[in-house]
């Protein structure tokens, strides 16, 4: 007889004998220590081939979330060195959002209860296998290091399917180690707790009363004592009290306290989950995940502002659902996806690598969740790696051409770019998707078409469009929106008109709000923004008004007092409310076509009133600064418009701060935008344009008070004001400060410097500022006065001024 340990073990299985090897016969001690796990565990997880024949895997040889339907699991079978049994977490593998329904777990109420000490194999109910070796002679069984095969009976589309998975002894050891740190519950206890959590979820979702008989949240005296400590100081007093309890007491209290806190105190529930998850005896993973999912579904706005002892809402999720404590054999998929969606980028990568290293079981939806996060991070290579693993995943009714895969591929293609390869220029991501077997549909080709136009090569975009048509992919609204956006950006008016001619016969495209807004924007660019100076402004306004009437309702224009009383529409238009962009463009056109300050003030007063009243359409304009900036541009053309301009900025500051506590104004829910750097620059330019240097300096002080950082337009506006005032020292100081902030002189700066009568003096002043020592202010003042006297003599010499600016530009070239 062979002394091979594999043959010896199989022979004992076949004969129904214990699989243990006497100590005196340990010739293979090294193999026994590393591969037999322990004596009693091997008895539990290994079953002879005769049992497989009597009970086929398709009938009873399965595992449905809990490892042992009789309340005993491999974790309850400890080795001879441990006196505490390790209870399974039966529902740790339950995936609440799994598309495959689970079969009900067979339960035998007559099954004997196992004591805390290590039970014997004979006490396990016969016919309820936990982990069974496959009856077939698989390569895994023939190998030197045999793997354990467990069967799982699932239901797919109403049909029972038997699935098998190979589990290495190392994975089983890791599973035992993780579950040894968990609180002890049998299968019925976990299912009962989850039923209570589900009842809380449904009652909250459907806004009904909770059925108390389903929620085990009635607290006893000891629970009340712990609850008092939670309310007093959960991070301190309660933590000490909790650590002083034994494992059985923690398990009993955790069930009731968790459900009570979820129902009555979500913030304390979050602290409770954090403290108990940091203990050596951790709650069952699936129970913690269900609790966090409940809190996120109904109390997320409140908890996102929660912060205690350096922990935030997301950091609590990272701590409670740490991947180090994820179950290996039965990993709850919804809990994994919840974790991946909520945690930081570093934690997502760590969870992905850990799951891959442990060969954790992940379904397609979970892989797609990882892929979506990697796409958000812009990590194209890792996202493609996930897709490659999905390709190797053999799952029922799964294909790389499924709808979910293609949606994620569309998002991934948005990061595509053109690269130069030895075979020529090509996209980076698209060829790899094609190699994996993904067949592009119209949505994917629309993204490819958009990427082609973004390269700046319109011919490449046209080739992609011809390819789509060749594949019988009819252009949709997204296709035409891409084509219109490209034509408008390139200023190709003929192409825009051709596309409009194709769109008009199709009502589904013509009424699309995005296409209508883009067409109206194109008409604004070609008619109002870049209008011919010789064209009558009234003709421009009425042309825009006629185009507006084709797509939108005229009522908002009447309420803004923009629509002329004598206007008669040439045709009956649509009653669709205007988009925010369309309404903004009509206001901008009106303000540009008429120059009377009284009209501008009237329209602004109506606009401000409608915003404060929470008008459904007009109030959306207050979310951005664009409309306010158009009014500022109109105000700065008239010196009398400076006060209304200042009042406009004050209105923006007040709207952004909200209503005063002592006012009776109605809260409309509209939060205005703060003045942006462009808004402040326009206000500054209004005083510079009207030659009010002192007021311009006050605006600069206000900008500094509100922490507004200058952009290049702001610096040029300030330089322009000082140059107009012939204040050479301030021009020099401004240029020096601009360079210190990392900006360089550009063409607009040089244009402003042409107003200087003596540009040579500016260069001298800048040279003085560049010296390490502080300049002598008195000498600089004398120099400025003498320079101005000299410039007065040659004020009419335009050629000399041009030569001075040319020399200044040449000297500034190295500094630029």
Mind explaining what this structure looks like?
This protein is mostly helical. Among the domains are: 5-180, no CATH class; 183-321, no CATH class; 342-439. Helices cover 57% and strands 4% of the residues. The strands form three sheets. It has a two-stranded antiparallel ribbon with strand order 1-2. Strands 3-4 form a two-stranded antiparallel ribbon. Strand 5 (418-421) and strand 6 (424-427) form a beta hairpin. The longest helix has 23 residues, at 221-243. Mean pLDDT is 75; it is low at 1-147, 661-667, 773-805 and 811-816. This is Pentatricopeptide repeat protein.
Give the overall shape. globular
Number of helices: 38
Largest sheet at a glance?
Answer: 2 strands, antiparallel
Q: Beta fraction of the residues?
A: under 5%
Helicity, in percent?
55-70%
Which structural category fits the helices and strands? mainly alpha
Radius of gyration: 37 Å
Give, in spatial order, the strands making up the sheet with the most strands.
1-2
Q: State the end-to-end distance.
A: 91 Å
Low-confidence stretches: 1-147, 661-667, 773-805, 811-816
What is the number of E strands? 6
* Mean pLDDT reading: 75
């Amino acid at each position: 007889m062979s002394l091979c340990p594999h043959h010896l073990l199989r022979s004992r299985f076949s004969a129904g004998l214990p699989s243990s090897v006497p100590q005196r016969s340990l010739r293979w001690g090294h193999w026994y220590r590393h591969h037999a796990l322990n004596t009693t565990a091997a008895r539990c997880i290994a079953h002879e081939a005769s049992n497989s024949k009597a009970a086929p895997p398709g009938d009873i040889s399965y595992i449905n979330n809990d490892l042992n339907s009789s309340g005993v699991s491999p974790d309850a079978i400890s080795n001879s060195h441990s006196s505490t049994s390790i209870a399974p977490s039966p529902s740790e593998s339950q995936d609440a959002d799994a598309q495959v329904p689970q079969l009900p777990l067979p339960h035998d109420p007559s099954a004997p209860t196992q004591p805390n000490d290590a039970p014997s194999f004979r006490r396990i109910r016969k016919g309820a296998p936990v982990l069974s070796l496959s009856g077939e002679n698989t390569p895994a069984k023939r190998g030197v290091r045999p793997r354990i095969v467990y069967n799982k009976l699932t239901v797919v589309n109403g049909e029972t399917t038997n699935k098998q998975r190979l589990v290495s002894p190392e994975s089983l050891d890791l599973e035992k180690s993780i579950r040894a740190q968990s609180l002890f519950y049998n299968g019925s206890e976990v299912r009962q707790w989850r039923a209570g959590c589900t009842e809380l979820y449904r009652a909250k979702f459907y806004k009904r009363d909770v059925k108390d008989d389903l929620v085990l949240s009635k607290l006893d005296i000891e629970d009340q004592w712990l609850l008092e400590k939670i309310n007093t100081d959960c991070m301190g007093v309660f933590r000490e009290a909790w650590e002083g309890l034994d494992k059985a007491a923690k398990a009993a209290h955790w069930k009731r306290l968790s459900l009570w806190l979820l129902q009555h105190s979500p913030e304390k529930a979050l602290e409770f989950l954090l403290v108990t998850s940091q203990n050596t005896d951790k709650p069952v993973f699936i129970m913690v995940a269900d609790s966090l999912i409940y809190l996120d579904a109904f109390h997320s706005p409140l908890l996102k502002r929660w912060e205690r002892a350096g922990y935030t809402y997301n950091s609590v999720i990272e701590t409670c659902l740490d991947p180090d404590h994820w179950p290996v054999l039965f990993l709850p998929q919804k809990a994994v996806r919840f974790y991946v969606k909520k945690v930081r980028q570093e934690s997502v990568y760590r969870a992905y690598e850990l799951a891959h290293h442990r060969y954790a079981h992940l379904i397609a939806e979970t892989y797609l969740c990882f892929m979506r996060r990697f796409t958000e991070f812009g990590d194209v290579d890792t996202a493609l790696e996930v897709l490659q693993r999905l390709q190797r995943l053999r799952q029922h009714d799964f294909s790389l051409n499924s709808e979910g895969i293609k949606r994620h591929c569309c998002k991934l293609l948005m990061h595509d770019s053109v690269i130069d390869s030895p075979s020529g220029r090509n996209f980076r991501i698209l060829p790899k998707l094609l190699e994996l077997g993904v067949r592009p549909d119209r949505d994917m080709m629309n993204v490819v078409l958009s990427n082609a136009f973004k390269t700046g090569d319109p011919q490449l975009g046209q080739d992609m469009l011809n390819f789509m048509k060749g594949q019988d992919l009819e252009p949709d609204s997204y296709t035409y929106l891409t084509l219109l956006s490209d034509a408008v950006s390139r200023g190709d008016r003929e192409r825009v008109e051709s596309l409009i001619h194709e769109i008009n016969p199709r009502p589904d495209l013509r009424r699309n709000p995005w296409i209508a807004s883009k067409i109206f924007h194109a008409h604004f660019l070609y008619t109002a923004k870049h209008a011919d100076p010789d064209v009558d402004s009234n003709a421009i306004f009425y042309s825009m008004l006629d185009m507006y009437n084709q797509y939108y309702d005229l009522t908002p224009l009447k309420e803004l007092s923009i629509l002329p009383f004598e206007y008669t529409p040439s045709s009956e238009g649509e009653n669709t409310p205007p988009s925010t962009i369309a309404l903004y463009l009509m206001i901008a056109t009106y303000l540009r076509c008429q120059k009377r300050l009284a009209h501008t003030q009237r329209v602004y007063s109506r606009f401000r009133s409608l915003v404060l009243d929470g008008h459904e359409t007009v109030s959306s304009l207050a979310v951005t600064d664009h409309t306010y900036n158009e009014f500022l541009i109109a105000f700065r053309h008239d010196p009398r418009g400076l006060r209304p301009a200042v009042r406009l900025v004050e209105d923006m500051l007040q709207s952004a701060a909200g209503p005063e506590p002592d006012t009776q104004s109605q809260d409309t829910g509209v939060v205005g935008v703060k003045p942006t750097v462009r808004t402040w620059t326009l206000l500054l330019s209004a005083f510079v344009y009207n030659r009010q240097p002192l007021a311009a300096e006050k605006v600069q002080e206000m900008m500094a008070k509100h922490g507004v950082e200058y952009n290049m337009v702001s610096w040029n506006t300030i330089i322009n004001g000082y140059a107009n005032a012939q204040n050479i020292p301030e021009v020099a100081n401004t240029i020096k400060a601009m360079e210190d902030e990392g900006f360089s002189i550009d063409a607009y700066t040089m244009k402003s410097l042409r107003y200087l009568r003596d540009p040579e003096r500016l260069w001298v002043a800048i040279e003085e500022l560049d010296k390490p020592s502080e300049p002598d202010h008195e000498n600089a003042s004398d120099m400025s006065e003498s320079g101005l006297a000299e410039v007065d003599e040659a004020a009419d010499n335009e050629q000399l001024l041009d030569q001075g600016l040319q020399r200044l530009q040449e000297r500034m070239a190295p500094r630029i």
